[in-house]
Amino acid sequence: MAQVSKILKKIDTTKRLSVPTRFLRSLPPFKLGSHAVTFEATDEKGEAWAFQCSIRKRGHPKPVLQRGWVAFVRSKKLQVGDKVRFIKHKNRATAAISYKVRAEKAIKIFGATFGYARI
């Protein structure tokens, strides 16, 4: 099981989610010459979300999720400071790969974050 988590910044809640380059190792392979790959992740309620991860054509890949991302943010009412987690799971019996996406709201007291609650 591999996972990547990120505390959301303003751009992450309005346009796209910039993810670490190591996230690419968890995704399905990009087709030869392609700069994007689509994958499906299920949330806590079992709802499926289709995301597209794209990379730059030249230089540092800088992976971002754009397609499907803003709809997910709006549905979960995510804000700056909240956290998102992507989890890749490989079924030992069938070798099938599945992805989960977890949204976590920041727990704030007097403006300071004290932890996160799954939503």
From TrEMBL:
Gene3D superfamilies documented for this protein:
DNA-binding pseudobarrel domain
- Gene Ontology cellular component? nucleus
Q: Which domain of life is it from?
A: Eukaryota
Molecular function per GO: DNA binding
This chain belongs to which protein, by name? TF-B3 domain-containing protein
SUPFAM superfamilies named in the record: DNA-binding pseudobarrel domain
Pfam short name (any one): B3
Q: Which residues form the TF-B3 domain?
A: 2-105
Q: Which organism is it from?
A: Populus deltoides
What subcellular locations does the record give? Nucleus
Q: Which PROSITE patterns match?
A: B3
- InterPro entries, per this entry? B3_DNA-bd, DNA-bd_pseudobarrel_sf
Q: Which UniProt keywords apply?
A: DNA-binding, Nucleus, Transcription, Transcription regulation
Check the record and name the SMART domains matching this protein. Answer: B3
Q: What is its main location?
A: nucleus
